[in-house]
Specification:
Blueprint (H helix, E strand, L loop, with lengths): L3 H15 L7 H24 L24 E8 L5 E6 L5 E7 L11 E6 L10 E6 L5 E8 L9 E6 L12 H29 L12 E2 L7 E9 L4 E8 L5 E7 L14 E3 L10 E7 L8 E3 L5 E9 L12 E6 L3 H4 L3 H4 L3 H20 L1
Parallel strand pairs: 13-14
Antiparallel strand pairs: 1-6, 2-5, 2-7, 3-4, 3-6, 8-9, 9-15, 10-13, 10-16, 11-12, 11-15
Helix pairs in contact: 1-2, 1-3, 2-3
C-alpha cells in the first residue's frame, strides 16, 4: 500500500500526542487531536504539492494548520530551495506593516534550531512605485525560504508573492511515477512525526525553565529574524486569578501579544480575543497598554481569554524596529484575584466594554480573518 508509511506515521504521531506529559483533561487531549489533524493536512499538502525543480510557495501554518506558536497577525509562506540554483521571488507589496524574508540552513527539529543564512525585511528591497519587487538569490546549501507578512491592522491589504527557479521557469515537471507517489507518502509521514516532535520539544528550550508568571525583557528573537524582538513567559493561573500586564505604547511599527496553549500553538484567535496588536489594543491616557489575561471575563476591552487553559504561554513581539529595545520597552506583570482587576487598573472606567461592543469586536475579528484568508 502506497499510503502505508503515512498511515503508520499518523499512528505514531497520535501516540506522541496522546502521551504528552501536560495533558490533564479531556479538553487538553481533544485540542491535541485537533492540532494533529492540522499537522496531517499541512504535511500532506506540502509533500504532494512540492516539486524539487519547480518551487511553489506554500502556507504550512495558518488558523487551521497551527505550529510553532503561530502569530495570529502573520501570514506564513515558504518552500525548500536547492543549492547552486538561482531563484527569483517576485510580488507586490501590500499595505501590511511588515514583510520579512528568511533563508534557513535546514529545518527545525526536536534537537536543532537552524541557523539563518539570510534575514531581512522589505526595506532592503527595491520596491517600484506600483509596489512590485524582485529578489534573486542562490543558496549555498539546501535551505528553507520563509516569508512572513505581518499585520498590525487586520484590515490592511495583502501583498502577493511568487517564486521561480530561473533555469526551470517555463518548463513542466515530468509525469507522475509510482516511485514519486510512494516517496511523497513517505515524506509526508516523516515530516508529520518530525513536526509533532519538534514543537513538543521547542518550548522546553526557550520557555519552560523561566519562572512561572513572569515575562522576559525584550530580546532578539531566537532564530535570526533581523528586526524582531520578543518577550516570553508561561503562566499558571487558578480560575479566579488574572494576570495584569502593563507596557508602554511602542514606537515599533508592529506590536503583538498572544496566548498559546501547551501544544505550543495559538489559541482560537478568530472567535475569541486571545491576541492583541498595536491597532486592536486600547491604550490608556498615560501612554501605557494594560492587558488582562484570565478565564473569567473582567469586562474590559483588553481582556485576553485563556479559554479554560489554566497553563499556557505568553508572547510579545515587536517588529520592524529601528533601535535596540531595552527592559523599559517591555512588559511588567502582576497576578491578582479577578475581583481585584478593577482596583489595579488606573483607568478602569474607560477600559470597561459592554457585551454588545465585545460581540462587535469578535465579529470584526471573524470578518477580517475571513477576508485575509481569501483575499
Amino acid at each position: 500500500m502506497y499510503a502505508q508509511p503515512l498511515a503508520d506515521a499518523i499512528a505514531e504521531a497520535e501516540s506522541l500526542v496522546a502521551a504528552a506529559p501536560f495533558i490533564e483533561s479531556e479538553a487538553d487531549l481533544l485540542e491535541g487531536l485537533q492540532y494533529l489533524a492540522g499537522c496531517i493536512a499541512a504535511c500532506t499538502s506540502v509533500a504532494f504539492d512540492y516539486d524539487r525543480d519547480h518551487p511553489f510557495l506554500h502556507s504550512g501554518t495558518g488558523p487551521f494548520t497551527k505550529m510553532g506558536l503561530d502569530n495570529p497577525d502573520t501570514m506564513y509562506f515558504g518552500t525548500r530551495v536547492q543549492p547552486e540554483h538561482e531563484y527569483v521571488v517576485t510580488g507586490r507589496r501590500g499595505t501590511t506593516t511588515d514583510v520579512s524574508f528568511q533563508l534557513l540552513g535546514g529545518e527545525y527539529t526536536d534537537d536543532n534550531v537552524p541557523d539563518s543564512a539570510t534575514a531581512f525585511d522589505d526595506r532592503k528591497l527595491d520596491i517600484a512605485s506600483d509596489g512590485t519587487f524582485e529578489w534573486r538569490f542562490t543558496p549555498k546549501v539546501p535551505s528553507q525560504l520563509v516569508i512572513r507578512e505581518v499585520y498590525n491592522d487586520w484590515s490592511a491589504q495583502r501583498g502577493t508573492f511568487a517564486i521561480a527557479r530561473t533555469d526551470t521557469a517555463g518548463t513542466a515537471p515530468p509525469p507522475l511515477t509510482r516511485e514519486l507517489i510512494e516517496k511523497r507518502y513517505a515524506v509526508a509521514g516523516k515530516q508529520l512525526v518530525q513536526r509533532v516532535k519538534t514543537w513538543l520539544q521547542f518550548p522546553k528550550w526557550f520557555y519552560d525553565d523561566l519562572p512561572v508568571n513572569t515575562l522576559t525583557a525584550p530580546r532578539l528573537t531566537p532564530g535570526g529574524l533581523a528586526t524582531q524582538y520578543s518577550s516570553v513567559g508561561h503562566y499558571d493561573l487558578a480560575p479566579d486569578q488574572a494576570i495584569v500586564i502593563t507596557l508602554p505604547v511602542s514606537d515599533a511599527p508592529y506590536l503583538g501579544f498572544q496566548l498559546g496553549s501547551l501544544w505550543y500553538i495559538s489559541l482560537d484567535y478568530i472567535n475569541h480575543q486571545t491576541s492583541l496588536n498595536g491597532t486592536q489594543a486600547q491604550a490608556d491616557p498615560d501612554g501605557k497598554i494594560r492587558i488582562v489575561v484570565s478565564d473569567a471575563n473582567p469586562g474590559v476591552t483588553n481582556w485576553c481569554e485563556t479559554l479554560g487553559h489554566a497553563k499556557g504561554y505568553l508572547q510579545f513581539r515587536w517588529q520592524r524596529v529601528s533601535r535596540e529595545l531595552t527592559e523599559a520597552d517591555g512588559p511588567t506583570l502582576e497576578v491578582v484575584d479577578v475581583e481585584k482587576v478593577q482596583s489595579v487598573l488606573p483607568y478602569y472606567d474607560s477600559n470597561v466594554i459592554s457585551e454588545d461592543d465585545w460581540r462587535a469586536r469578535i465579529a470584526l475579528r471573524q470578518r477580517l480573518i475571513g477576508e485575509r484568508m481569501v483575499g
